[in-house]
Amino acid sequence: xxxxxxxxxxxxxxxxxxxxxxxxxxxxxxxxxxxxxxxxxxxxxxxxxxxxxxxxxxxxxxxxxxxxxxxxxxxxxxxxxxxxxxxxxxxxxxxxxxxxxxxxxxxxxxxxxxxxxxxxxxxxxxxxxxxxxxxxxxxxxxxxxxxxxxxxxxxxxxxxxxxxxxxxxxxxxxxxxxxxxxxxxxxxxxxxxxxxxxxxxxxxxxxxxxxxxxxxxxxxxxxxxxxxxxxxxxxxxxxxxxxxxxxxxxxxxxxxxxxxxxxxxxxxxxxxxxxxxxxxxxxxxxxxxxxxxxxxxxxxxxxxxxxxxxxxxxxxxxxxxxxxxxxxxxxxxxxxxxxxxxxxxxxxxxxxxxx
Length: 355
Ligand code: FNR
What we know:
CATH superfamily: Aldolase class I
Helix content: 40-55%
Bound molecules: ligand FNR
Strand content: 5-15%
């Protein structure tokens, strides 16, 4: 079905191979307290949000996935059509492939060609130079630049980086000298409050904590190894819910975005209620686009928009910001994590002003 001759193709194929539906996740250790009087109409719910100086009509987007080969150009074409028709933002995968090999530029520029007025984010890994960051933005006239941090992926990747000594220094230069807002993101390993503190200290304003629970790059890269396997690293990292809990001291200071293992509109609402400005999906949207096709995915996303408004109504909250006033119970491993890290989980359980 898919050519397996290139790392970018392999990432897409293996993400698909390992995609599991209805997987258990830390989102299941998060429960909203149900209150019986919403005191609003579904039509009162507003889905708009903003981050990286951009106004967004919807609080979810297609997160970084791919580009870098003829086959992934076709995948990006589908994703760009979905983004255009639904009006949601979209990130490309890492543009470093096109900086190394100009013959694959079109696998990224297709995203802008198809969606000339949509919100599009470029993507690069940390450790890239400022000059390359500027080139990546220019290539697709990006509205923002995502810079990903992915040390576990690099370690397990057979041909991955082994030198992480300059990441913060290089990142700081990029954050202050590219012409568009920078979003620093993980790739499914989550973030700690210490990481977020380090990012804020170098001036990063928008952070996608991209947690564990969905696409697993330790598993994908481990599968690509012939020997010296790292099976035991497949559980490395913090889940999306735990990362959001870790981010709490910073949610009013910088813009926190969430991604990693989002399965449905309820997971989006849960993430927003822990202070995320918006939520990114990679694995699931990739899966829908490849399995169900563009038309069906568009219909599904339109249904999700309605369902988000319905869930907000159940919670009696008219705006994304108001969702941070919901009452939330954290259970099981998430609660244990909170206890170990001296995070008071009872604060989340008693946030609403209902008397
Ligand atoms: C990714 N992801 C990713 N992230 C990034 O910043 N640059 C990249 O080039 C890629 N490449 C990539 C390829 C494929 C096939 C997938 C599925 C994902 C990571 C992605 O943006 C996200 O952080 C994680 O996948 C977690 O979200 P999901 O997939 O669980 O929704």
